[in-house]
């Protein structure tokens, strides 16, 4: 429950709000009545009970989903399917100030190509950093198919730290998949093009158009991809698709498929059959088996050429060194997923009814014996498909992607054309169960389903079409994420979640207990780099620096004021605001918006962020806080005054406003003394318990102590003015003293509630 404070001679805590119970007959409805009224079956009730999360409840798993064309990501809880956050990645996200503060503009700028800033991204495949093949919950990666890019997101604060653009590919699809210890983030090209963003006519397709895969070196300590330590493999123009890293026995290898080994070039406008006909004409495409450990050694030995400053291992070197082997795979494959034990690779086929299970050991045996069926036109050895197979299983129409269960040998494969999920045993090669979804599933996600220890429990179907599942909202329908219970023998559909964001593509889910996000930043953190901001100031040392043509504000925010509140500048000046949120209280975020400008910051506790304004036109630009942070949130405001050319600076920036008397001061002063009694009571309660055993309370006590120190300062000022009979300033500072007390009391009450709810013990 929210508390609010009413100003008066004493602090009144309004606890009574919202306690009323809905009146009338509905309140007396029984479960049976509700089931009847809403036409719910026992099965529905069971599904509801499996997903319903009472107020304050937490989810067992956290999912990170691609946000498709939004260029963002979505975070939601499983099994409740409650959306927790959208993460701005390749596109601005105003609420989080992403793309609006100077710090995040820098991150987005890294994603510009040929000088162009993109305001969309086509995000496809998220991946969580792994340690020994399991999610470690530290970093998140996602690719942008449209402008080949990879982004790095910190799972401490769910903010984007870095964007790298691919210097050699024109387009990609097979990102962002990590190797088992996150040594590399893999990004495979899709539409072949001349490497290095160059031109070549299409009649040179076979000779000058190329595919490839980039290995982006990830520095875990810095949380950064290191382009200078990354390399790419030049690959034939086969339209490479998805890739996954080997595990266990297949550690050090990667498996990348392709869907147009025909190297067909369409041209429907000139009477040629289109791409779709030519790219699906042959019975097979190629699975690329990549020895990435060996490729890394070749790169480190300097056997590469440079394109746009980036190391590329050429096809010739790849063939000479034996870095890539090809295996024919069923027509128009899609999805390449390594089993948790690392022994098998499962590949779907969009135009096939089978899932193909390749046996890594059999592949190795052929490679070791140099037993090749032939070579492709680029000199890459081709293995015999039959000799590489473990089994092929007829699953249904359009098998795409596969995820794994915690139970051995159990896999789930999406069937796009059939609109179903197949549960099957890849060891024995038999189908166990099927469930219909709505509709045309693409990817699917089990809990930690691409790690060496999948967690089972749930599966989410990421569907391409929703058609009739939700209330109509016009021709563009929401996406449909469907939650399925996979804990029993038979799959059970639990919940449909509409998502109005973009095509979901893939998602990954991690046990919530593995994530350890921060509650607040270390004081003065530039959240976009996670480093100390050089612009942070402590309360009391706020200042405005003026140099010709430039006004630089070093300020702080706290409930419920900006310091400074009035900033004057001259037309033509560059004005730079740096704000530090000095709050430590959980969720006490302030915003900073300047009217008639594109400035909108989000200042979470401890964060420092900056905004630059070019004051082209004289005028009055009010600024205000955009988060309803306190009872006096609307009063959290200020003015940027830009004087038109020719006007001089006024020394008295603000009018004096109302005038106060000694009586006003005395009344306020008494009010502060009364409030202090309430605060002392709360402090007495907290210190009488074992509160130091509760870290969140220790943090809150630190916050409250901060506020009480500010209160003491304000009191000293008030009393100082009172001795000079300056009742105007005395009264205003006494009021400010009270404002700080209110915030201290608010924090104290949060701490008290926490202690009561978490069974604190009396020790005094
Ligand atoms: S792909 S629907 Cu973009 Cu991940 Cu398979
Ligand atoms: Cu700070 Cu509203």
Overview of the molecule:
- With 764 residues, the chain is of the alpha+beta class.
- The chain has three domains: 61-396, YVTN repeat-like/Quinoprotein amine dehydrogenase (Methylamine Dehydrogenase, Chain H); 525-643, Cupredoxins -  blue copper proteins (Immunoglobulin-like, Sandwich); 659-757.
- 19% of the residues lie in helices and 35% in strands.
- It contains twelve helices and 46 strands.
- The strands form twelve sheets. A six-stranded mixed sheet has the order 10-11-12-13-18-17. Strands 37, 38, 39, 41 and 44 form a five-stranded mixed sheet that branches.
- β3 (61-66) and β4 form a beta hairpin.
- α10 runs parallel beside α12 (727-757) and α11 (695-723) runs antiparallel to α12 (727-757).
- The longest helix has 31 residues, at 727-757.
- It is globular and about 100 Å long.
- It binds (dicuprio-$l^{3}-sulfanyl)-sulfanyl-copper and dinuclear copper ion.
Strand order of the largest sheet: 10-11-12-13-18-17
Distance between the amino and carboxyl termini: 28 Å
And the CATH topology of the largest domain? Methylamine Dehydrogenase, Chain H
Hetero compounds: (dicuprio-$l^{3}-sulfanyl)-sulfanyl-copper, dinuclear copper ion
Name the CATH superfamily assignment of the largest domain.
Answer: YVTN repeat-like/Quinoprotein amine dehydrogenase
CATH class of the largest domain: Mainly Beta
Q: Summarize the amount of helix as a percent range.
A: 10-25%
User: Number of DSSP strands?
Assistant: 46
Largest sheet geometry: 6 strands, mixed
CATH-derived architecture of the largest domain: 7 Propeller
């Amino acid at each position: 429950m929210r508390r609010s404070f009413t100003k008066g001679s004493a602090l009144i805590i309004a606890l009574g709000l919202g306690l009323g119970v809905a009146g009338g007959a509905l309140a007396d409805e029984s479960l049976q009545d509700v089931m009847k009224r809403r036409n719910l079956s026992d099965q529905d009730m069971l599904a509801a009970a499996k997903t319903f999360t009472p107020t304050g409840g937490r989810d067992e798993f956290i999912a990170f989903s691609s946000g498709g064309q939004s260029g963002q990501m979505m975070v939601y809880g499983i099994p409740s399917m409650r959306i927790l956050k959208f993460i701005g990645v390749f596109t601005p996200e105003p609420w989080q100030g992403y793309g609006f503060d100077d710090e995040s503009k820098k991150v987005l700028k890294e994603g510009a190509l040929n000088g162009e800033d993109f305001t969309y991204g086509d995000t496809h495949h998220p991946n969580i950093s792994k340690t020994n093949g399991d999610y470690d919950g530290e970093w998140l990666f996602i690719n942008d198919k449209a402008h080949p890019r990879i982004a790095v997101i910190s799972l401490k604060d769910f903010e984007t730290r870095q964007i790298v653009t691919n210097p050699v590919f024109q387009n990609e699809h097979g990102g962002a998949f990590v190797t088992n210890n996150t040594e590399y983030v893999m990004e495979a090209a899709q539409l072949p093009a001349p490497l290095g963003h160059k031109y070549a006519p299409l009649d040179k397709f076979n000779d000058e158009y190329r595919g490839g895969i980039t290995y982006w070196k990830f520095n875990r300590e810095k949380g950064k991809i290191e382009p200078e330590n990354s390399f790419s493999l030049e690959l034939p123009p086969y339209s490479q698709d998805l890739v996954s890293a080997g595990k266990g026995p297949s550690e050090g290898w990667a498996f990348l498929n392709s869907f147009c080994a025909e190297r067909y070039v369409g041209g429907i406008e000139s009477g040629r059959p289109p791409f779709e006909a030519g790219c699906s004409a042959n019975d097979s495409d190629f699975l690329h088996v990549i020895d990435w450990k060996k490729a890394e050694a070749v790169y480190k030995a300097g056997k590469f050429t440079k394109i746009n400053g980036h190391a590329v291992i050429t096809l010739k070197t790849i063939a000479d060194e034996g870095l890539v082997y090809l295996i024919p795979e069923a027509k128009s494959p899609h999805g390449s997923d390594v089993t948790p034990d690392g022994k098998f690779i499962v590949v779907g086929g969009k135009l096939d009814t089978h899932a193909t299970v390749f046996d890594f050991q059999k592949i190795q045996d052929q490679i070791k014996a140099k037993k090749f069926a032939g070579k492709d036109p680029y000199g890459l050895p081709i293995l015999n498909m039959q000799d590489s197979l473990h089994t092929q299983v007829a699953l249904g129409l359009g098998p795409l992607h596969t995820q794994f269960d915690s139970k051995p040998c159990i896999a789930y494969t999406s069937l796009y054309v059939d609109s179903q999920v197949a549960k099957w045993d890849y060891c024995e090669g038999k189908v166990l169960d099927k469930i219909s979804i709505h509709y045309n599933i693409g990817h699917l996600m089990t809990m930690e389903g691409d790690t060496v220890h999948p967690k089972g429990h749930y599966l989410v179907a990421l569907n391409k079409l929703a058609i009739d599942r939700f209330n109509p909202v016009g021709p563009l329908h929401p996406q449909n994420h469907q939650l399925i219970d996979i804990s029993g023998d038979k799959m059970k559909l639990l919940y449909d979640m509409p998502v109005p964001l973009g095509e979901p593509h893939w998602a990954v889910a991690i046990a919530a207990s593995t994530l350890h996000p921060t509650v607040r930043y270390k004081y003065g953190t530039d959240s976009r780099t996670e480093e100390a901001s050089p612009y942070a100031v402590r309360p009391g040392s706020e200042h405005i620096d003026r140099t010709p043509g430039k006004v630089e504000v070093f300020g702080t925010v706290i409930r419920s004021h900006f310091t400074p509140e009035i900033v004057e500048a001259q037309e033509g000046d560059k004005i730079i605001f740096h704000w530090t949120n000095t709050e430590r209280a959980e969720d006490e975020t302030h915003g900073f918006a300047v009217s008639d400008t594109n400035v909108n910051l989000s200042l979470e506790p401890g964060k420092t962020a900056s905004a630059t304004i070019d004051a082209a036109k004289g005028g009055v630009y009010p600024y205000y806080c955009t988060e309803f942070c306190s009872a006096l949130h609307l009063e959290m405001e200020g003015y940027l005054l830009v004087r038109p050319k020719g006007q001089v600076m006024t020394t008295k920036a603000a009018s004096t406003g109302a005038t106060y008397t000694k009586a006003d001061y005395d009344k306020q002063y008494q009010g502060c003394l009364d409030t202090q009694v309430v605060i002392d009571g709360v402090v007495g309660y907290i210190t009488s318990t074992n509160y130091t055993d509760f870290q969140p309370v220790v943090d809150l006590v630190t916050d409250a102590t901060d506020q009480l120190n500010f209160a003491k300062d304000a009191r000293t000022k008030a009393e100082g003015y009172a001795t000079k009979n300056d009742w105007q300033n005395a009264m205003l500072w006494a009021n400010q003293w009270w404002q700080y007390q209110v915030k201290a009391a608010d924090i104290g009450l949060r701490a008290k509630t926490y202690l009561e709810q978490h069974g604190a013990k009396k020790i005094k």
